[in-house]
Each structure stands twice: as C-alpha cells, then as structure tokens.
Design brief:
- The chain is mostly helical and about 270 residues long.
- It has one domain.
- The protein is built from nine helices and three strands, in the order H-E-E-H-E-H-H-H-H-H-H-H.
- The protein has a three-stranded antiparallel β-sheet.
- Helix 3 crosses helix 5, helix 5 runs antiparallel to helix 9 and helix 7 packs parallel to helix 9.
- The mean pLDDT is about 90.
Length: about 270
C-alpha cells in the first residue's frame, strides 16, 4: 500500500478509473478524483478500460493470426496445440447448443471466450504494480481489468442484445417477432400480459449477462485489494491460494458469457 494513504483512500484509488470528459469547471480534462469523474457525466470515457480492452483484443487477433499463418500438419508447436484445443472446445460447445446454419456464431463465440478471458486474466497481476508505474508517469488512476468496469460488460452485452433482435427479425420477420413477443405463453387473449412477460425476459438477457460478469470480477478485484492492505507475510499467505482459485473463476466467467450468448442467439433463430 502506498505510504501516507489510508485504507479507505487506497481502496477508493484502486477502484477509480482514469476518466476523460467535460468537467463543468475544468472543461475537457482527465479527472483527478472520483468526484470529478462523476461530475463529468454520461459522456465521459474510462480511458484505461478502453485502452486495455482494445489492446487485449489486438493481442488476441495478432496471436491467433500468427499461429494460423505458421500452422503445420507435422509436429505442432505448444502454442499451436493450445490454440487448437481452445478452438475445438468452443466449436464443440457451439455444435451442442446452436443447431442452425450461421457461419458467424462459432467465430464470434471464440472471440468472446478468448477476449473476456484475457480481460479477466489481468486480475491476476498484483494490484499495485501497474498503478504504481502509472503514478510515476503522472497518471492518477489506472484500472487494468476491463471486466470490472460495468461500462465494458454492458457494452458487450448490448452488442449481443442487438444481435438477438437482428436475428429474431431476420429469421421470423418483423411480424413473426412481434407475434412471438405478444402471443406467448398464454395466447392472444392475454396479449398485454404476454407482452409484459416477454419484454421483461428479453431486456433481462443483456442486463444479467453484464451484471454477472461485472459482479464476479469486481468482487475478485476487491478481495485482491483487501489482501494488499494486510501485512506482507499475510499477503503472500492469502494471495497465492486466492489467485489459484481465481483462475477457475476467470475461466468460468468467460465460458458462461460465451455459452449464454450462443444460447440466446440459438433462441433467436428458433421458430415457435
């Protein structure tokens, strides 16, 4: 923990994003406190979340494209073996859940799984390392786990929601989609009640998708921060077992986000 900083200030510092926006007093600038970030309003952007998520996405693309270009049918490298294992794992899950013809679903599922996993994986980096480097460079805040930012998880879930609406209309037509929302489960005589139930269920999909990932990763980050407040010997005693257990959590959350996306898109293709 940084010297001269109380426990409350330390926690608040590590949970604050590097935010850029239009402040009522300072104009367009980086926020120097959580309060300034809040005063910037809805149009402010969390620069650290954007930078790390985009950077990890580029890393994913470069790594997989390089392995694909250098792939061999002979004795494969360890990296090629590992990536082929991931691709087969995702492909098996898509085939078991999605029973329609759509060439986009499998690549999208692979992207979601690997990208979310990489964002979650950043949680295993000790909480003080990169923020300390950023502070030495004059950067006030630096959160390196994009999936602990609700803006990021909501952004991904809203993209999935748009695809759900798109494929529902594409497969069933606008009238078929509206009929699905208004005529089930109780028939045309209960149309308002049907519409209420179906709209709640439809809107709940992206919200639950975002909050599930955000909540689990935010809680994991909070535990790492609390461990960092303990004496040095206690940090090593607790952080290593928690990090090992957290590997399961970050993998499971990436898997859940991927599988639910596949399930929701399969439901969008189904005809009732």
């Amino acid at each position: 923990m940084a010297s001269g900083m109380s426990s409350a200030d330390y926690i608040q510092h590590h949970l604050t994003n590097l935010t850029y926006g239009n402040h009522p007093v300072n104009g367009w600038s980086f926020a120097e406190s959580g309060q300034q970030a809040a005063e910037m309003g809805f149009m402010a952007i969390n620069v650290d979340s954007m930078a790390w998520s985009v950077g990890l996405g580029i890393f994913f693309i470069l790594l997989f494209s390089r392995v694909a270009k250098n792939a061999t049918t002979g004795v494969p490298s360890g990296t090629q073996n590992f990536i082929e294992m991931i691709i087969e794992f995702v492909d098996d899950n898509v085939k078991s859940v999605f029973h329609h013809k759509n060439a986009i679903i499998a690549p999208m599922a692979l992207t979601i799984f690997v990208w979310v996993f990489l964002m979650n994986l950043m949680d295993l980096i000790p909480v003080d390392w990169i923020p300390s480097i950023a502070a030495a460079s004059g950067i006030h805040f630096m959160k390196i786990v994009p999936s602990t930012d609700l803006n990021v998880t909501l952004g991904m879930s809203i993209a999935v929601f748009v695809l759900i609406i798109f494929y529902s209309i594409q497969q069933k037509g606008i009238m078929g989609f509206l009929a699905e929302l208004s005529l089930q489960p109780l028939g045309k005589w209960a149309l308002p009640f049907n519409l209420f139930l179906e709209l709640v269920g439809l809107i709940a999909k992206p919200i639950s998708l975002a909050l599930r990932l955000f909540g689990n990763m935010y809680a994991g980050e909070m535990i790492f921060i609390l461990i960092a407040l303990l004496p040095f010997w206690a940090q090593w005693l607790l952080s290593v077992p928690w990090a090992l257990f957290h590997i399961l959590i970050i993998t499971l959350q990436a898997f859940i986000f991927m599988v639910l996306t596949i399930v929701y898109l399969a439901m969008a293709h189904d005809h009732h």
